[in-house]
Amino acid sequence: MKKGKIYFSLSLLLSLSIWGCNPLNVEEILDPNNPSVSSVSNNATKPQIQFVLTGLESRHRGYVTNVSQAWNTFGREIWYLNGSDPRFQTDWLGQNGRVPDRSYFGFGNTGGGSYAAPYQAINQASVLISAAQNSSLITETEKRAVYGFAKMIQGYQFMIPANFVYNNGIRIDVSDPLNPGPFVSYSEAMNHAKSLLDEAESEFSAAGTGNFPFVLTSGFAQFNTIAGLRQVNNAILARANAYRNDWQGVLNALNGSFMNLNGNLNTGPSHPYAGPPDVFNPLFYLPNAATNTIVVVHPSVLEDATPNDNRLSKFFQRANPVTISTDAGTLTGTHQDARWATNTAAIPFIKNEELILLKAEAHANLDQFADAVAAINIIRQAAGIGVYSGATTRAALIDEILYQRRYSLWAEPWGHRWIDARRYDRLNEIPTSFDGGTIFTQFPHPQAELSWDQYVGN
Amino acid sequence: MRKTYKFSAVLVLFFLSVGWTFAQYTVTGTVIDSRTGEPLIGSNILVKNTTTGSVADLDGKFTLNISSNNEAVLVISSLGYLSQSITVSPTYTNLQIALKEDATNLEEVVITGLASSVKRSNLANAVSSVSAKDLTGTTTVQTTDGALYGKVAGATIRSNGGAPGGGLSIQLRGISSLSGASQPLIILDGVYINNSFQRTGRAAVSGAGGANQDDGANRLADLNPADIETIEVLKGPSAAAIYGTRANAGVIIITTKRGSEGKTRVSLSQDIGFAKPLRLLGVDEWSEEKINFFWSGDSEANRLRRATELERFRQGDRIDYEDYFYNNTALLSNTRMNITGGTEKTKFFISGNITSEDGTVKNTGFDRYSIRANIDHKISDRIKMSVSSNYINSKTDRGFTGNQNNSGASIGYSIAYVPNYFDLRPENGVYPTNPYFAENPVALTDNAINTSEVNRFVQAFNLDIDLLKTSNSFLKASIAGGLDFLQNSTMVYLPEFLQSQVASANPGDLLLGKQESFNSNFQAALVYNWNLGSVNMNSQAGMVRLDFRNSSLFNRGRGLVPGQTNLRQATVQEINEHFVSEIQEAGVFLQQEANWDDKIIGTVGIRWDKSSLSGDNSKLYSFPRASLAVNIANFDFFNSSVINQLKPRIAYGETAGPVAFGSIYTPLQGANIGGLLGSVVSNQFGNQNILPETATELEFGVDASLFNNRLSIEATYYIKNAQNNIQNLNLSPSVGVNITPSNEAELQNKGFELGISGTIVEKSSFKWFSRALYWQNRALITRLDIPTYILGAFGSGLGTFLYAEGYPPTSIVGTPANPDNPGGFTFWGDAQPKFNMSFFNTFSIRKNLELSFLLDWRKGGDNINLTSFLSDGGGTTNGWFDDDDGDGIPNGRQRPPAPFNNAGRWVQDASFVKVREIGLYYTVPRASVASAFGGYLENVKLGVSANNVFLFTKYEGYDPETSTFGARSVDNNVDIAPYPTPRRIFFHVTLDF
To answer: Where does it live in the cell (chain A) (predicted)?
Structure first.
């Protein structure tokens, strides 16, 4: 048994040496791929705040693809012909009696790009605000600038879910992730957007002058000063006030905006798309690309166009039309979107042309017809279709303004026509004869909202 | 030669000091197979209750000295045979022993714990064992999991499609996890091997979506099935509790072949075969009437399009694209060489394998090169060491099938959308532009690349040390471990001249990936075997350590210089993915087995585990188990000539499923925009308190053997409850964070498994062995404290899955909305089959001919068939333009149920009967071999076999068992233009030297 003892001691030694490096010790593994949100919640450095701020610019454009493709389809500015999935046609056009449900195609359980994405931007802005608040490493004016920027984006983003579900209302108290507030009406939601933009204005006014103290992308190239951002903020406020039917408010906001009656109509901030490591412009298609997945101009837009309108240069007539056949029939697109020179072109989110049209609309609604016509004529002359010669009644001018908006703001990442037609109760004027579909008024709350209320209810 | 070779090794199993006495006698004998009369080489002859023994030589003969003049009981055993006990005495020394085949596997030794094994007849769980013969004896299957179809009661196996190189998932006893993969843990010779579905990047390039639509292969494909000696399947927590945290979905224990003492044997096998698609669906013909209907519309553009189509129709040749792309003959070749042998101290098994199989789609295939060396060595009388080394190189080209978006990079989509009158084939080297889809699939198939090359090394070691040995006890230390290092280089390449690329701003798309995974595990246990009266006790204590490290780096280049596949030749270069993960786990275990004379066998055990994945990385989770088996037939009072074995058994155990990596983090992710980098708050809110999913299982059943062990019955019922199921709690999307992992669900699986096997006819000239397996499982969400939700597949419009309390998670729901139902949609089906059955038969005719076949039957279980959805969209479904109800609207536009716009249209019953395997083998008589080849060649076996031979189903797809999401736990029954499953036919030659 001597040998046995030797082996016993040997294995004891062996096991002791194993215990030496303690195989039972399990370390805490920190995320090897990302910093944590909590890393910026306490005394974040200026570079950390910069990263979160640029992150907000990224979240700020989260809605663009979905809203551009879907809302512009709802308003029949475009068709999104998609050979890989017929539901872009059948479901989005409401063919064969399809109506939006809580988990509709293209929006999922969360509302996707039309609902969840804007709220992600709003949350990102909140994280940015608290990172700045809890930091002693940036100055007070720098903080104010950050708050202003964050609230401006929040004001803009709140309008997206509000217009998606419209009279169903949205939540505006979203600060506590596990305890969101109730749904409020559309008008309350829009008032909330306005108040955020007002707060942004007052934050900016306490943020000094000169350059914005953080780096912004080229999307804000002409607006990266405190003054420039205030102009952007007021432009957004003008749009919000129009949705609130606060026409004097529109005019007041326009005065503080970058509106320039003699300037380039395309001036405005935009969402940049630089290509890798950034993404490409999601709306870009090569001219005449031999594909069956492409955004095409809705036939009614072509049919209703004024001959020789310069804005028709936004449409490119394809050598080969794109045809898609689904169980709801055949759709053919003859023209594609020609607005983007390259797949790295930036996409504007509000521009001078819209501001002038908002001016016209505000004046018309305030029965200041001469001012309205003057603004309309800026747009008409730029389009090369001569001055306005129609009646100068409110109704006629609104007709004219809505028509000009169809071509000036065609297929912008906002769904202008859908929202405009709804604002003036003209959804029934959007033609369905080309596709046999239906025009949606609004979407129900996404399933996840309903589920959350059930969860809290339990 | 054989005469000069005197096989005279006398094996003394345990070297103890044996007292020398003068009195002794010698027993000699021959051991043969009772049916064929063939000698049973290597049979063990052991003097009962001693360690004295001998082995039979090549003629089945043995000699054994008995060191006394008393009677002695010899136990004669041979692997796969029922053992016999014979009493010898100085007057009875010449034995002729005929052993019967163990048709019911009662003698088989089953690995049941980390350091223990038990004879099947004493087992308290329904552990399925698949032997080498079961696995690969009938036909040659590409991958190990593919060879398990129909051989394990309770296993549901699904493939992503028929692409070469694997891509299968196994679920044991239903769904074990609602969010995890629900795949069993796989342990190869003690190594926790990687069986993940690795990303290839195809879905990113084709636009299909996430990596779960890549149709990647799972990495069990790397293992050469012919190296496997046995596979043991611990199906649930009651059997697998000692494996702890990773055993919720069961454990598959694979043991490879090892060398045996004796002459060095060389075996060479060659399979040559071919594959054709098992089933094709046909495409619809066109007519002018159909064209006028399909391309209807009043606009000018529509009129022009109609005219164009009619013109093409009038001119065009007819090409059946399904036939063109899929109906090719693939060559299959499988070459294997084994060298085994050894001495009493050192034994070896060395194998080499070259598998080279084409796919039925052009430019697809699977090549695997594998070398294995399994060495066992006795360092001393007390220390045994074994190592198993396996290097594998496998290369898989899987082509382009399945889902896509916008890129056109899927053959199946193209078949669905291109009418048969349009010719896509190249003319003078130029591929025509496909006006019906975004890509010319002929150009794609000829020129695009989707390849993955794996280099892998799996190393296992094992050290057994006898620490103490007395006459009735021993203490043993067992140290084992190993590593699995895997590197996977993937490439997806769409050359710049493809239609989809010409149509994009930066033509030419290249996605190169490198994935590395390194698993290592270490285990140490002390085993003490002792006797307490007439009860044999086996006590074990040990520890386990696991480490898993993974990293992946994917780079994409677009805008390529023609013909170049180097990323530096791309205009736009992009880091597509960089991801690192590290997991550490550790556990300790205790187990006590008690065996009272093979009459009552009880086991209790417990394991404690901690994991870096859990919210609290230092918290130990405990996993107890207990089991009891009673061998009624071994009691003295039991006296039946019919029933040889009757064993009621009951087992209980607990296990866990690990938390997914990253669940505890709330990250700030990188987001580039306009030349800057942003940090964005993730959609996921980490849960620092997340717990592993735990499961408890109670299993009980009866095993019986009848008619002199010719018939065996194994019946098992189980109730498996999974608590703390990890699911994402969907937050209100208004808060800007969509999900947080939660532990608020409970899932129950109840099921029944029945196996009946036996030798129906057993004559010297004819033997018929038959085995029928039946199993059914019912899954149910018994508790869901998060809100009811729908998830999976392609949304409510095309059929998705309901997660609601009181409903099976396999419930398929979809449009139209129905607010009265939980989840708000209409119920359309259930993915879960009513039952599965398999039926295996082997006929042995005379000594040399063997015919086997395996049949599978699944009753019920619905699929979401989106292949039909696509071909209906393109007007190409066979019979599309027929009009069954005569209302003027063709069938292809009017799939029931009315009003023909809901998700129910694509939910189809996927019941089937499949003839899975057929094999016919002829062993050339030894005498003929000897006379033809002298002593050089010992054995020649010839065969012909087939895999996936026939399919009978009403399901309108290529294979009711394929799914684009094959690896997911719940929605793994979604059919989207998959690679058709092949029918494989082989010719075999095996030569033993």
So the answer is: Cell outer membrane
> What residues in B contact A14, CB-CB < 8 Å?
479
Any domain includes A61: yes
Residues B953, B910: contact at Cβ < 8 Å? yes
Residue A298 in tokens? 């809705």
Q: Are B909 and B860 spatial neighbours (Cβ–Cβ below 8 Å)? A: yes
* Closest Cα in chain B to A277: B574
Q: What tokens does B304 get?
A: 């022009």
User: What chain A residue is nearest to B403 in terms of C-alpha separation?
Assistant: A84
Distance CA B208, CA B917 (A): 34
> CATH homologous superfamily for B211-260+328-786+831-861+910-992?
TonB-dependent receptor, beta-barrel domain (2.40.170.20)
Number of other CB atoms surrounding residue A395 within 10 Å: 10
Residue B38 tokens, joined: 């063939």
Alpha carbon distance A51, A71 (integer Å): 31
Preferred mutation among B548, B616, B735, B803 to probe A, highest tally of A CBs within 10 A = B735
Per-residue pLDDT reduced to its tens digit, B533-543: 888 888 999 99
What is d(CA B876, CA B870) in angstroms, rounded to the nearest whole number? 9
Range of the domain at A154: 37-281+345-450
CATH fold label, B25-99: Immunoglobulin-like (2.60.40)
Q: Considering its fold, how many domains does chain A have in total?
A: 1
- Asked if residues B657 and B180 have their Cβ atoms less than 8 Å apart, the reply is yes
The greatest distance separating any two alpha carbons of chain A, rounded to the nearest whole angstrom, comes to 117
Check which CATH number belongs to the domain holding A100 and give it. 1.25.40.390
| A contacts of B400 (beta carbons < 8 Å) | none
Q: CB contact, 8 Å: A424 with chain B?
A: no
- The verdict on residue A235 lying in a domain is yes
Residue B247 tokens read as 């055993």
Q: Is B430 on the interface with A (CB under 8 A)?
A: no
Distance CA A48, CA A52 (A): 6
Domain-embedded: residue A17? no
CB-based contact B238:B718 (threshold 8 Å):
yes
Burial class (CB in 10 A: 0-12, 13-18, 19+), A341: exposed
Retrieve residue B822's tokens. 């939980």
pLDDT tens column, B808-825 = 999 999 988 898 998 889
Q: Average pLDDT of A414-419?
A: 96
| Interchain proximity B790–A178, CB inside 8 Å | no
Separation of first and last alpha carbons in chain B: 13
Task: Count CB pairs under 8 A between chains A and B.
Answer: 340
Locate A440 and state its tokens: 């949606």
pTM, 2 dp: 0.90
Does a structural domain hold residue A182?
yes
What's the token pair of residue B604? Answer: 């209790």
Residues contacting B839, CB < 8 A, separation 6+: B770, B771, B772, B773, B854, B855, B856, B857
Q: Which residues of chain B have pLDDT under 70?
A: 1-23, 49-51, 103-107, 112, 180-181
Question: Which sequence spans correspond to the domains of chain B?
Answer: 25-99, 211-260+328-786+831-861+910-992
The predicted complex's ipTM stands at 0.91
Kindly determine whether residue B301 and residue A329, on different chains, have CB atoms separated by under 8 Å. no
The per-residue DSSP string of B378-401 comes to ESSSSEEEEEEEEEEEEEEE--S-
A176:B735 CB<8 A: yes
The C-alpha of B372 sits at a distance from chain A's nearest C-alpha, in angstroms, of 29
Residue B629: in which H helix or E strand, if any?
strand B621-630
